[in-house]
Amino acid sequence: MTAPGPPEIRAALEDAAAAVRAHSRLAPRCGIVLGSGLGGLAEAIDAETAVPYTAIPCMPVPTAQGHAGELVLGRLEGRPVVALRGRVHLYEGRTPADVVFSVRLLAALGAPVVILSNAAGGLNPVFQRGDLMLLTDHLNLTGTNPLVGPNDERLGPRFPDMSQVYDPVLCTLADDAGRAAGTPLRRGVYAGVLGPSYETPAEIRMIRALGADAVGMSTVLEAIAARHAGMRVLGIAVITNAAGRETGPRDRTLRHEDVLAAAAASGPRLVGVVRSVVRALD
Ligand code: HPA
What's the predicted TM-score (pTM) here? Predict the structure, then answer.
């Protein structure tokens, strides 16, 4: 499925939301987007329904390994939540409108908060594989923006403010959860790139010099669309690899399988943080 462009997008979102509501009328307090290798978080949800993306009109279906393509509506810590198990990326050849359709669907389902998770390469030299990093800000290096084209004011304003994309109150809740669990979270700036090739050493030096602490191939467009829709956003990156040494080439070849395995290994800690944040939402 392909998401339509701006003129028809609102009607498509209403159709998609109606298809989900036909399975469950639960009103979510929070949406959760599960990144590469992080789909296990969906299992922590006491599910009322799991709807395959193929059963949701206009919902783009992911092709990347590690993304199942299923929307799970249920309860986490007793609170109604909706989780997206799998997302589409620009590097799959999808449009920016496709990439953000699912986050807009969470908004259409009434979720006032979204938690965006991802797997990322660490650029900050103190970061270790397996760390969780709270996004404090991002660099959109994808070369595109989901809001390009005619703006539907019913979805959000033409020129949305991006001075505080990631909600500081939600960051504090996540920080408290990490500290309580004995594994404090990192904080940093996430650079979103197009991919799918991983970065060269020169690109890593450049992105680091631009001010990023981690780099990945998702999240930034979704965060822009979520803020456009007025949602509060929490971003959590699992640092799956040291993306490079500042002074030389990568210490070893980077493979997608290793990224997925590293993300899965940090999954339980991510689940713990998300549980605590959801519990503290009301
Ligand atoms: N670069 C880009 N995306 C990533 C990386 C990386 O090193 N690790 C996980 N996702």
Answer: 0.94
